[in-house]
Amino acid sequence: MLADLLSEGYDTDLEESWENERTATPVRAFAVRLHQTGCSLRETTTILAELVVESSHGAVWNWVHRLADSERDPPTATPSRVAVDETAVKINGEWSWLYAAIDIDTKLILDVALFSRHGTDPAAAFLHGLREKHDLSEAEFLVDQFGYRTALARLGLDGRVDYTDRNLVEKWFYTFKIRVDRFHNSWVGSRESAREWIEQFVYYYNY
């Protein structure tokens, strides 16, 4: 059975998240992974149907959000090199700025945050939050020219301008935007709903 084939590849901690569900937990975990890595709800249910598993769009949507509510704490790191950058995203027709930091050596997304504008102050706020979550005592930040060196100096963090290794975070933004653009060019919903979706995307990307 499909559930038996998938049972070796899922986290048994998920069982508690989906009590009283008829569909086997490995199948639900597989469906959530399909959706979070790029498949639409329709595509996910079509794939499940090909595997002789009947499910509705609403069921898959509920599985995704039920799992999100029970996610484990994000991993912590002690990175030696961190790439930081920001990119514009549109929410309800208005531009916001998504900041991200990635551990260059492990490829782990260390943190993301949405701001209504970009510049030195948002960069400093993002770096401050990042420092609260990870040990950055040995980290060197690779940044571009736009406000980051001033922000790093404010916080006493080490960094330098880099346009080579730092490309890793730009590649992640490219992956992120491909995922978003498959369904909409602009979020229709609150900034908080966009933030929750982005955090889920990062969670599945890291794991």
TrEMBL record:
InterPro entries, sorted: DDE_dom (IPR032874), RNaseH-like_sf (IPR012337), Transpos_IS6 (IPR047930)
Domain of life: Archaea
Keyword list, A-Z: Plasmid
Residue intervals of the DDE domain: 81-168
NCBIfam families assigned: transpos_IS6 (NF033587)
This protein's name: Transposase
Organism, as annotated: Natronococcus occultus SP4
Lineage start: Archaea, Methanobacteriati, Methanobacteriota, Stenosarchaea group, Halobacteria
